[in-house]
Structure formats: C-alpha cells, structure tokens
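Recap quiz, item 2
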Amino acid sequence: SSKVNEQNHLEIGGVDAAELASKYGTPLYIYDVALIRERARSFKHTFEKLGVKAQVAYASKAFSSVAMFQLVEEEGLSLDVVSGGELYTAVTAGFPADRIHFHGNNKSRAELEMAIKLNIGCVVVDNFREIELIKEIAAQEKTTVPVLLRVTPGVEAHTHDYITTGQEDSKFGFDLQNGQVERAMESVLSSDAFDLLGYHCHIGSQIFDATGFVLAAEKIFTKVTYWKETFQYEPKVVNLGGGFGIRYTEEDEPMPATYYVEKIVESIKQQVKESGIAMPEIWIEPGRSLVGDAGTTIYSIGSEKVVPNVRKYVSVDGGMSDNIRPALYQAKYEAALANRMNDPKDDSVSIAGKCCESGDMLIWDLPLPQANPDDLLAVFCTGAYGYSMANNYNRIPRPPVVFAENGEAQLVIKRETYQDLVALDLPLKSKVSQC
Ligand code: LLP
C-alpha cells in the first residue's frame, strides 16, 4: 500500500519514504509488509476455497533474511531453501524445520547432513549422486528422509510463452522421457532411507500464462498410472514450483497469482480423476509473486551528463551492486521521484548506476520531473532478486533493508560498513603490524 502523502512524498506501509531515506541513508530497500501478508494469505485462501490440501512454500532465494523468514513463519507458509546458507538463516530465524524444503542440483554432503540432522520437512532430490549421499547419511543418522523427486517434464516457460520438448536440456532434475525418473524411483522405493512423498517440477520464472503449469502437470500425470502399476506407488504430494509473474512495467500483463493456482488445481483434479489415484496435496513455491512488488529501492540522485541530442544520464548512488537484474536480464523497471511524486514529468532521463562499467544502467529513457542532486529516486518492484543478488562489486557496501507496516518502520538488515568489507581480508604477512 504505497501512496503519495500531503508532502508530495512516497509513502510505504504508512511511512514517509523520504523520512526513511534521511534516517537510514540511501540506497535503501523498503518493504511494504502488509502487501507480503496479503499475497501470502491469498495463496492460502485460494487452496482453502478449492478444498485442496496444500503447502505454500516461500522460495526464499527471492529475498532471504531472518526477519523475512519470521514473517513467513507468522503467515504459516513453508520455506524453500537452496543452500546451507539459506538453511542456516532459517534456523537462526527459528523457522520450524518440518516446514523447510531443501532444493538444489548440487547439494553438498555437509549441506545434506545439516538438513537431515535438523529433520527438515523434505529434501527435493535432484540427481543420482544425491540419492547415494542421502542413503549414506540416513544410515549414519539412523533416520528416514522425506523426499520429493524433482522431475524435468520437458516444459519450459519463457515469460510470455512456453515450449515443450521431449528432451528438455536442463541441469535440473530427472528427465521424464528417458527412464531417469523410473531409475530414481527404483532406488528410492527399495531403500528405507527414504519416504517418497511425491514429485516436484519447476518450469521457469516470471511466467504470465497458466498453460505451462497445466502442461507440466499433465506430463507428470501421463506417467502416474504407469508408475502405480510398476511400483505400486501413488504420490502424496505434487509440487509445481514457483514462477508466477508480476508486473514490473506496463509491458507486463500477468494474471493475479491466485489465478495460476486455480488453473493448476483444476487441471490436477481432472488428471487425478482420469488416473484413478487419490488426490495428492498440491504444493507451490512462489518467490517473486510474494515479495516482488512489496519492495522499493530509494536512491539519491547525484551527477548528470548530457550527450547533446542523444540523452541525459542521471546517476544514482547504487546500481548493479544492489540490482543486477537490468544488467543481467535487461529487466525493466518503473521509477519516480520519491520526494516530488506528483510534479510534472517534463524530462526524460536514463538512470545510471555508480559502478565502473557502462552496462550499469538501471532504467533507460525514464519520464521524470527535472531532477536535482539529492532528490530521491524510488525504483519500484525491487523486492525479489534485488537484495538477494546484491554484491560488493567495486567494494560498494550492500544497502540496509527496512520493513514498513501500519505507519511504523523497522530496520531488518543493517547497511554494510567499510569495516565489514575488509573483515575477511588478511594482510600480507610482512605488513601485519600496519593493519
Ligand atoms: N522453485 C524453484 C525450484 C525455483 O528454481 C525457483 C526460482 C522458484 C521456486 C521461485 O520462482 P519465482 O516464483 O520467484 O519466479 N534471478 C532471476 C530469477 C531466478 C529464479 C530461479 N528459480 C530473476 O531475478 O529474475
């Protein structure tokens, strides 16, 4: 719930963004907590309305922090982690282990040991080496590990469309088409190291069309009857991953995220009927659609350069170090002056980051009021894959994160300091006394 207040300033979660910028400095990420809660609840309510047992796991790669994980736990969602670091953050946040799902195509022995010792909710098994590792660790820990098998259904979504190939060329999962899933099931079902809960697939990210999800579910269900006959096995869970698209700019026309859920459930109900198995739980893993539009980055305007008859570059005090998406994916964003929201947009500028490379451009040809140094630029929809992909290129400290809700703001990640930047560095042996 962001709006413009009487001072003509951007307000997020009932808090003046310009006030937050002066209190915490810029760049600054601000999250609208009520919006995250609203998104979380609407996923859960949609499943309840459809009468389907479900788990909604927040794909924490979109934005992970202790406070974020605590918010996810408050809202009763599960958590998808993909590394020991995300798992450790979940543990630090006191997140219930039985609602954690562990993903990844190359989990290390140490990571799997950590997860299994914590008794996490499930490991999403990606490959044959992982099956062997889990067998060893389960024997050593005298335990059984709940698992999903990650299946590669041969459906790939590309935002506006999708392609299906018999043999999807992907680093993830067991291929559906060439017997890999059957080989994995043989291993898993014949060992008491595993409790096979069911199947998982994930077809992509920032998807606008429900067809891809439906096709992926259909591809899995074409095999379910065969697997039932061959292995006397029926899935208790089908997890269709994340990927529900959001609106970054007017070029994007996603459906509300719950629409995709409805289509998925509709299709699975139909498939279940046809295949004669019991209705499984349906799990999903949204990341972007839970936090993307809840996040805004506030920058201070700095220098400018005019290339006559071409364009005006206006620089901000961050860039690809806090939002690598424009440089990496040509991602587009909308922005406004946070301290002069309703001023007429009589200028057109290109927003440059401060990193030492020409590719560090955040937005091209943005309509904006005539901006002056120290005006504040708000870039919208930076809540997903912004902080989580931030880096220290050019030794720029990562910005802080503030949560705003009901007119109150709370710092949830501190700004990195210059001391933090050198904290892991060790001096040359001969210079130790100088540091
Ligand atoms: N589940 C799995 C297995 C995934 O690999 C992903 C995202 C998700 C769930 C969550 O997808 P979402 O709902 O957030 O679309 N860095 C890229 C996005 C990479 C997504 C990777 N996997 C970006 O900034 O656009």
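The chain has a mean pLDDT of 96.
DSSP finds twelve helices and 23 strands in the chain.
End of item.
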